[in-house]
Amino acid sequence: MTNARNRGRSGRIDVVGGSRASVEANLYSVLASGFPADRSGCCIETLDGLYYTWDDIDRASAKLANLLADLRLPAGARVAVQVEKSPEALLLYLATLRAGYVYLPLNTAYQQSEIDYFIGNAEPSLVVCSPASLAWIAPIAARHKVAHVMTLGEDRSGTLLAAAAGMSDRFRTVARRPDDLAAILYTSGTTGRSKGAMLSHDNLGSNARVLHQYWRWRRGDVLLHALPIFHVHGLFVASHGALLNGSKMIWLPRFDAAAVIRHLPRASVFMGVPTMYVRLLDDPAFDGNACRNMRLFVSGSAPLLPDTFRQFESRTGMRILERYGMSETVMLTSNPYDGNRMPGTVGLPLPGVDARVVDDSGRECASGGIGAIQVRGPNVFSGYWRMPEKTREEFTADGYFKTGDMGKWDANGYLSIVGRGKDLIITGGYNVYPKEIESYIDELPEVFESAVIGVPHRDFGEAVTAVVVAKPGLRIDEAGIVAALKGRIASFKVPKRVHVVDELPRNQMGKVQKNLLRERFGG
Fold it and tell me: What's the rounded Cα separation, in Å, for the pair 316 and 215?
C-alpha cells in the first residue's frame, strides 16, 4: 500500500482483461464458473419450501434467455424490471446477462412519476412489472413506445413465466467484451434528475472475484439472503458472492428479524444494512447461540454507528465487517476479514482499487485530513447513461471518479466517511437526494420554499427531514405535507419529520446553510 500523502491508497493487483468478445467474458459465465460440479444440490431454498437446484438455475435462466432472444430485441436492449423479490426475478437477471442484454433494476417503492422518468430516459425494449402494477405501468410504457410489457409475480404468476414455459432449456451464452454494458443502475443527482450508472460485465465480474477472495468465501458456506435485489448490495454483492462460490442461499422475501434469527443457525454468511442489525439487537432471541455457525456478518449501504458495532460484538462475540461502495463502483473498500475491524471506518481499499482523499486544490490529504474521496479501478463504471457532460465532470484528468463523499485516512490506512459533499442522505440503505424531495414539496400550494436534510436516526442511519417555510397567510400542517408526498414518491423518501420555520438560514451568496439546520434539528 502506498503512502496517502503522495499517491493515494491502493490495493492494486493485475487484472486480466481484453477487448475481444467471448462467452467467458459474459458476467453469467463468470458466475457460472463457480457453480458446483454436482448440479443436483440446492442453490436457493425459499421459506415456502421450494428448492432450486443448480441445474434448475441453469435450465430456467436458459428458458428465459431463449424468450428474450425470441422477442428479437435490438442489440444493447435494456430490460427494465420492477418486481418483488423472488428466485424467478434473479433468474430473469441471469437470463438478461446470458442473452447479452442490459439489466435495469428498479426499486419496488418507485411511484408513477419516477417510473415515467426511468422508462423515458432508458428507453427499454422490455418492461417487466408485478401483475398488481400493470394497470399503471402499461400506459407509461405505451406512451414511451416500449415494445414489450410482461408481468412477474413473487408467487411465480404472470405472463413472463407463461411465455417462457415452452422455450428450450438449453441456451448458449452470448459472447460479450469485458467493457460491454451489463447493467444500468439509476442513482439520483443533486439536480433532482436521476443518472443511470453504466456498469460493464468486467466492472461487476472483477469486483465479484475480488470479494470472493477478500471475504474468504469457502466450500460449504450458506448465505442467508434478506436484502432486496434491485440494489447493489443484494443483487451484485450478496447474490454474486453466493453464485460465484457455488453456495446455497436461504432466500427471504424481505427482512424479518424473527425469520433471520430462526434461519441463522443454518447459515454462515449474512449481509445487511445497519437498520437490520439494530432490529436484530432489539430482539432478545438474537444471541451468540443463534450465530453459532456464522463466520461473517457484512454491513453496508449506510453508516454503521460505532455503538451498534459494539453492542453486536457484546451480544454475539462477533465483529461486523463494514465496507463501502456505490452504484457507480460496486465495492471500493472493506474492513479486513483477517485483521482488525475498526468501528466507524469502512476499512482499506480492495485489491485493484486506488483511493485517495484530496483537498480543494486537488492535493492529497495527510492522515487525519478531511477531503473529497476519489477512486479508480476495474470496478468503476464508464459513465452515466446519455450524460456525456456529466460523466466528464465526475472524472479527474487522471481517471479518478469523484465519489462526492468526504473522508479521511487514519494512521493505519483505514478510511472513514465523514460526510457527503453532494448532500446525499442514506436512509435504511437507500439513497435520497434532497433536491428531488424539495422539488415535490415546493410544488405544494402552501409551501414557499423548503430544505431537506438527513439527521441521525437509530434504525435508519439517517432520517429524511424537511424544513419548510409557508407562503404568507397560509398554514402548513406536518401531517398534510407527509400525506401529500405519499403516493407521489417512494416511501423511504418521504420525510419522517417536517419542521416549519419563518425563514431558511442563508450565507452571503444566498445558499441555504444546511449545516445549521442539521445542528438545529439533528438532536
Answer: 20
